[in-house]
Design brief:
By secondary structure, the chain is an alpha+beta fold. Helix content is 43%, strand content 10%. Among the domains are: 37 residues; 117 residues, no CATH class; 219 residues, no CATH class; 60 residues, no CATH class. It contains 42 helices and 19 strands. It is globular, with a radius of gyration of 35 Å. It comes from Hyaloscypha variabilis (strain UAMH 11265 / GT02V1 / F).
């Protein structure tokens, strides 16, 4: 039995404590202080000679540059990955982490006097405290910003406050009996014990959130049996990754069968590997401490690929093998290789990787998931996934295989890698700063390439599928040394890519913006990107964040941050959790233990609860708006589908990242399958419209009608509210009538006013789109010229006629000077838009207008009042017109509503302008046909203008080119979304990705913990229950501070009593 007081045991325990603290606080930059403290305290001498490994790793060959591992100072070693406490405390083997720490510390192997143990421990403890300061008692005081500008709080500190905050939320919502068990946290407990206590609290929270249904439950609409957490807890919460389940005796654990039902998309990827001979793996069984490794046997180009697979204790082969990170890709056409002399089939991308990594004269030892894991065994995959953190962190090199060049497709990635492998001591960035892209010409010539080809290679590399997979993201994160990037046999270090990434992105931008003489270069670049440059820039920023690991704080990444930005994909939906767990904190790993037979919906429900309650991230509902059978009574309406994160438009208003500026607090909790939140009922939904997803004409038509039916005239509003009306008698009369009309709508709050586009996009981007929808159509300048002879630079020349002899515009000279300015200023744009997007309504309105009984030729009473108001009794004239139009509007409304979903106030105001300009029926009878003729001509121009004509105009007229861009932007911003309006005049639009909207009992609510109001369907006022349809952007309701009580609402709106909402 091992002597507990032996020098080896003491050193082992001390090193465990040191590495654990480093793992906890993520302050490798202070490691030198710690090292020196150990040396001074212990008095050990020089580092002993390195003991040769029993198995030599595959060495470099002359024809292939061997990637030299470089230390990674920004994170800790493998214990940072949150692996099992039982493995961390196991002292029976030669633990690599502690061997590595011993080397760094320079510890000698000579025996020490055990009687000096207490002094030794005391000195080391003092050194630890000097190198690793304890967290402050006040959580807010420790939130110092990291390199990305975000405040950093220790994991322990965060969870200590989180438990207290959640208990406060529970106390406001439910009685004592309905809350999870609050743990008796021992703040002085060892790290692993503390992690277990927090995991138990998460477990208790999930139990009350997703209980087994009672037989008397009336909630038959939700599939409670499928989301009963306590039935599957054995497959979820463990005290550590390799021990038996919490609270469950070993004999009650249900074994996972080797094979089970496999989703079709997963089966398609595994098709080659499921044909392998089972004997390959039965002879190479694994235990908790071992892994399989393969050795790629040497060979030349054209030789069969042969590998040898064997089992090794992981601790014994640490830093003696490489690991491969790649995408599985298409299984066809299957490729043949030999594993332990047995012929098997693999996917072509892995075959290319093996060919690229194979050396001609020496074996190469490497870990490859598709081969080293038995893909036919769910049980093995569930267990081995738990080792992934250690497998990649203990590899001497992680090789990222992006792909291989093919004869059928030209590629420039090899040019990029040659540029990255140059040795210029930083001269490239200096020359670029002084001379721009031309300053790099000579450097590129030495690399046998040129700047355009390097840029193309960079773009191609950024667009490779490797960047978009869940597992590759984690594999890269876990690498303890700088990874190597491979394209075929060409390779470069991650350090070189990180060094040049900003430079390369700037070069791409320079080429994109240049008037470049070689138009083919720019054309090739745009074709390769195949998306707006802004979208590519977002992708590139995400790649930059990954390769620099800038978000690593406290030794781990933050689930809230990563899921907020996650765009990677996975074939198996469970890997959206299991494929990331090793890069999160240990509590996350203890809660989410891989189990590939667990129902995906239940796993996602547990993740949602963890993010909402323990990450205090209610806005997960905004970023993941796709729900499992939302509104259909199958699963809870708050249950996100984590495979479908929304990719917002660059102009979309997005939730604030609260973690960037403060420590967020939980505001929402899940109890009995319902998401509970406190807040206010903002208003009842009156109606909604669903925008088309593909037809641009239909989208613009809906947007224009919504903007002009649920909005007031922008120009009139500006004059009226700001008092900006010029000294114009008749404009003043009109504005008085305008104001009197709106005064009747006292039940509408002031949020009723405003343009849809401007209230949908981010305020700082207000200049990127016009105010009115019609101004975004490509032929708007053409219509303006034909209607009012308004011209823009280049338009006259592009039209090709003598504009000076073209005569007046279609809408000129229809009104007299009395109302001509008012019409041109406030109604010409509306009239043109109505011709394009509301023609049926407008044509009926104009046809009926001259002979309406209210002002027909035989209505002597009306025309007498008009005559008597001349010349200056404007008040009497205004009253006569308003009274008459009120009757006309009542008569025509039924006919209008048969062909249009709404009736616009604009028609009322247009009628005021027409009637103010007509002193008798004859003038009215002359005016209306002119408006009808002008409208028909403008509509014909709009419908007959071809895309080719627009392209020609855009090439010659800058404003047309801008409108073409605006048109595409509006389509991308609004397609598929819901427009809605409420009883009290709130108007809004569903947030991106919302799949359902309103029913007859829908309300808009503002609740604590969310950055946006929510749409609640089938709402029950008495119980507060309803279905969560999704988030919405409501004009006049600013929720970006995530607190319903502090939400910015219209000054004339009165909120009711705060209440608890229960989202089923």
């Amino acid at each position: 039995m091992e002597n507990a007081n032996s020098r080896q045991t003491i050193m082992q325990r001390l090193l465990n404590a040191a590495t654990s603290l480093l793992r906890r606080t993520g302050i490798w930059d202070k490691f030198k202080v710690l090292v020196q403290g150990f040396k001074d305290a212990v008095g050990f001498g020089q580092k002993p000679a390195t003991v040769p490994h029993t198995e030599s790793p595959a060495g470099p060959q002359q024809d292939i540059e061997s990637p030299a591992p470089s230390p990674r100072p920004d994170i800790t070693h493998h214990e940072a990955q949150g692996e099992a406490s039982s493995e961390r405390s196991d002292t029976s083997g030669a633990c690599h982490a502690n061997n590595h720490a011993s080397d760094v510390l320079g510890l000698q192997s000579n025996d020490q006097d055990t009687t000096k143990k207490d002094i030794l421990v005391g000195n080391i403890t003092e050194a630890l405290q000097k190198g690793v300061p304890r967290p402050l008692a006040n959580p807010g005081a420790s939130g110092q910003p990291n390199s990305s500008g975000q405040p950093v709080f220790s994991i322990r500190e965060t969870y200590e406050s989180r438990v207290e905050e959640l208990d406060a939320v529970y106390s406001r919502i439910v009685p004592e009996s309905g809350r999870p068990r609050k743990p008796k946290v021992n703040k002085s407990a060892p790290t692993d014990d503390y992690d277990n206590q927090v995991a138990e609290y998460v477990f208790s929270s999930l139990m009350v959130a997703l209980p087994e249904p009672q037989s008397s439950s009336g909630d038959t609409g939700i599939a409670f049996q499928q989301l009963a957490y306590n039935k599957l807890k054995d497959n979820i919460v463990h005290t550590n990754a390799d021990s038996k389940p919490t609270g469950s005796p070993a004999d009650t654990t249900t074994p996972v069968p080797d094979e089970g039902p496999v989703e079709p998309e997963i089966e398609a990827v595994l098709v080659n590997y499921r044909t392998w001979d089972r004997e390959l793996y039965s002879k190479l069984s694994l235990d908790r401490q071992s892994i399989r490794l393969v050795e790629i046997l040497p060979g030349l180009l054209g030789d069969d690929v042969s590998i040898r697979m064997d089992v090794h204790p992981l601790n014994e082969v640490a830093m003696q093998y490489e690991a491969l990170s790649y995408v599985w890709g298409n299984p066809e056409p299957a490729k043949k290789i030999f594993v332990n002399a047995v012929e098997v089939s693999i996917n072509p991308n892995l075959y290319d990787a093996l060919i690229s990594l194979r050396q001609p004269n020496r074996e190469r030892r490497i870990w490859i998931d598709a081969i080293c894991l038995n893909q036919m065994s769910l049980a093995e995959r569930s267990k081995e996934v738990q080792k992934m953190g250690r497998i990649y962190s203990l590899a001497k090199t992680v090789n990222v295989f992006l792909g291989a060049p093919s004869q059928s497709n030209s590629t420039f990635i090899d040019k990029l890698l040659k540029f990255l492998n140059r040795d210029d001591e930083g001269q490239a960035a200096v020359r670029y700063a002084k001379e721009g892209p031309r300053g790099l010409d000579r450097i590129c010539e030495k690399c046998q390439t040129n700047v355009p080809d390097v840029c193309k290679g960079f773009v191609e590399a950024c667009l490779q599928p490797w960047w978009g997979r869940i597992w590759t993201l984690q594999e890269f994160y876990l690498a303890d040394r700088d990874p190597m990037w491979y394209w075929g046999r060409e390779h470069a270090s991650n350090g070189s890519l990180k060094r040049d990434f900003s430079l390369l992105m700037n070069l791409v931008w320079d080429l994109w913006r240049s008037e470049d003489a070689n138009g083919r270069v720019l054309s090739d670049l745009k074709m390769k990107i195949a998306k707006p440059i802004g979208s590519f820039n977002v992708d590139a920023e995400r790649i930059s964040a990954l390769i620099s690991r800038r978000y690593r704080t406290d030794g781990f990444d933050t689930p809230r941050r990563l899921y907020r930005e996650l765009t990677a994909r996975a074939t198996n939906p469970r890997d959206f959790i299991y494929g990331l767990r090793a890069i999160f904190n240990p509590v996350f790993g203890r809660v989410f233990v891989p189990d590939y037979q667990m129902r995906t919906e239940l796993l996602f429900a547990c993740l949602a609860i963890f993010l909402i309650q323990f990450e205090a991230w209610g806005d997960v509902l905004w970023w993941y708006p796709s729900r499992y059978a939302a509104g259909k009574g199958v699963f809870p309406s708050w249950l996100p589908n984590f495979t479908q994160r929304i990719v917002p438009h660059e102009l979309d208003v997005q939730p604030l990242d609260q973690a960037a500026v403060e420590k967020p607090e939980p505001k929402l909790v899940v109890l009995n399958h319902r998401l509970h939140a406190q807040g206010y009922n903002l208003d009842k939904v009156y109606g909604h419209r669903h925008l088309d997803k593909t037809d641009g004409q239909k989208i613009f038509q809906e947007l224009w009608q919504f903007d002009h039916c649920m909005n007031n005239n922008h120009e009139c509003h500006e004059f009226f509210v700001k008092g900006a009306a010029p000294e114009d008698l008749w404009l003043g009369v009109f504005l008085d009538m305008y104001g009197s009309h709106y005064a009747k709508w006292t039940f509408f709050n002031s949020a009723f006013r405003g343009a849809l586009i401007q209230s949908t996009i981010k305020p700082e981007d207000g200049e990127k789109l016009p105010r009115q929808v019609a101004e975004c159509i490509p032929c708007w300048d053409l219509l303006q010229w034909h209607a009012l002879r308004t011209t823009t630079p280049g338009l006259s020349e592009a039209l090709g006629h003598d504009v000076h002899n073209a005569g007046p515009g279609y809408l000129e000279n229809i009104f007299s000077p009395r109302m001509g300015t008012v019409f041109r200023t406030a109604f010409a744009d509306f009239f043109i838009g109505a011709c394009l997007f509301d023609w049926n309504h407008l044509s009926i309105w104009l046809n009926r207008f001259p002979n309406a009984t209210q002002w027909c030729k035989g209505n002597d009473k009306y025309w007498t009042e008009i005559q008597e108001s001349l010349p200056d009794n404007t008040e009497k004239r205004a009253k006569a017109i308003a009274d008459a139009y009120s009757g006309y509007e009542t008569e025509i409304a039924p006919e209008v509503m048969r062909i249009s979903w709404c009736s616009s106030f604009y028609y009322t105001f247009l009628a005021y302008v027409i009637l103010l300009d007509c002193d008798d029926h004859a003038s009215l009878a002359r005016m209306i046909p002119k408006l009808q003729t002008a409208g028909e001509k403008l509509r014909n121009i709009y419908l007959s203008t071809t895309s080719t004509q627009i392209e020609d105009l855009a090439a010659a007229v800058p404003s047309v080119a801008t409108r073409v861009s605006h048109y595409s932007t509006v389509i991308g911003l609004f397609r598929g979304r819901y427009l809605l309006w409420t009883d009290g005049g709130f108007r809004g639009i569903s947030c991106p990705g919302v799949e359902t909207c309103c029913d007859k009992k829908s309300v808009v609510a503002i609740v604590d913990g969310l950055s946006f109001p929510v749409i609640v369907r089938d709402y029950d006022e008495k119980t507060g229950e309803g279905w969560l349809a999704g988030c919405a952007l409501i004009r006049g309701a600013d929720m970006l501070n995530r607190d319903a009580e502090r939400a910015v609402l219209p000054p004339d709106y009165k909120r009711g009593e705060k209440r608890v909402f229960k989202f089923r």
